[in-house]
Amino acid sequence: MLHLSLPSVYTLELTSACNNRCPGCSNVYAADRPPALKSARDWTNLLTTILPDAVQVRLSGGEPTLHPEFFAILGDVVSSGANVTIFTNGRWHNPARFVASLREWRDSVGLLVSLHGATATSHESFTKVPGSFQETVDNVRLVIENHISVMLSSIITHHSWNEVQAVVNLAQQLGVQGVAFNRYLGEPLPGIEPTVDEMRIALETIQNLAATDVRVKYGIGIPQCFEINNSEGCLAGVAYVTIDPWGNVRPCNHSPTIIGSLHEHSMHDLWHSDEINAWRALMPAECTTCAAYSVCHGGCRAVQELRADRRDPLRGEPLTEYLPPQEIKELPASLRPRRNFRIREEEFGYALLGQGHVIPVAREAWQVVNACDGAMSFAELAAQFGQPGLDLLGELWELGMLDAA
Predict the structure, then answer these.
(1) How far is the C-alpha of 176 from the C-alpha of 144, rounded, in Å?
(2) Angle at which helices 164-174 and 196-210 pack, to 10 degrees?
């Protein structure tokens, strides 16, 4: 499987502590939560060699804001120049003080706040903390009032599958940037995990919303053989990794596989090791025959590790034909696009690295990419590079990887 020469996206699990008790917690150490005492200095020393290559850094946990030196770590990560997202449940000991401290970095940092339903009943059926819904909603309002970027992250559960529209309505009322809907990944959770039919209905609702101007997206990819959708294939082991509170590297925060320790090996060596190559090869052989494999990447490897039958419950039969959902949109002809991504040279050509997106392009596309410097309009670029260039420009514009000069 094609992968970058080094990761561009890192999830840093700063601490194992959390003040929610979600039975479907994505962190593999959530059940016992052993103490993690890595200080800000320890984290700084650990990250010195990897942050220069980072395009996006996600601060996670547990609940990352519970780390006693959270803002010291945040400052070091922001100074690297990477885009920074804080994955948080929105429940802070002193919200006013937390938000006041965060304002210093509001131009460089965004929040992804977990809200697993549109009501206290649905949300708290997952968090298992009475009052957590209202606390999170109130704190999201506080953050928005302070002009800090926020998106919501909502896991589809048996209690919220029919609240997709309601979650979006609440997001719009709060004024957040949008909602990332996630499928549940982990061991079977009867009574909390949605049924296959519930998941399909939720997915259809998301697809219908995505076809409008509503800002919804998939946080985690859905196999195309389950239902045709516009989610993207997982980039775990392709462009990103997770570093846990003890310095261990895992392919993603859902996977229990430890590739190795950064205290003992370099990221380069771990990224090119036999251990991670074995993890990349976990996908069933039949997935590689599917017409949607290049988009889907075969679904989620981590969920296969966590299921006794070693099978993604949403995986169906390989598709012999695949036509992705497409919307025909016109580019603003007079605007002059400018790159909002980094460019990394790779063996296959170039990787265009945006916030949460990795676009591989052949070397022949370099002229198109290089021309996105604000000097030429979309109309002029289309005239010079034709339909292939226009297709690439359209994809980059739709993903927010181009700004208007």
Answers:
(1) 7
(2) 40
Give the CA angle between residues 127, 356, 92 to the nearest 5°: 35
Give backbone dihedrals phi and psi of 399, rounded to 5 degrees, phi first: -85, 0
CA 205, 209, 211, 216 torsion-angle sign: negative
By the 10 Å C-beta count (0-12 exposed, 13-18 middle, 19+ buried), 100 is classed as exposed
pLDDT at 7: 94
pLDDT at 21 > cutoff 70: yes
Q: Amino acid identity, residue 280?
A: R
In the chain, the amino acid numbered 179 is: V
**pLDDT, tens digit, 9 for 90 and up, residues 197-221:** 999 999 999 999 988 878 999 988 8
Query: pTM above the 0.70 mark?
Result: yes
Q: Are strands 216-218 and 260-261 parallel, antiparallel or unpaired?
A: unpaired
**Terminal C-alpha separation, the chain:** 36
Give the CA radius of gyration of the chain.
Answer: 21
CB 61 within 8 A of CB 333: no
Of 85, 77, 64, which is closest to residue 16 (Cα–Cα)? 64
**What pLDDT digit, counting tens, does each position of 74-126 carry?**
999 999 888 999 999 999 999 999 999 999 898 899 999 999 999 999 999 99
CB 235 within 8 A of CB 7: no
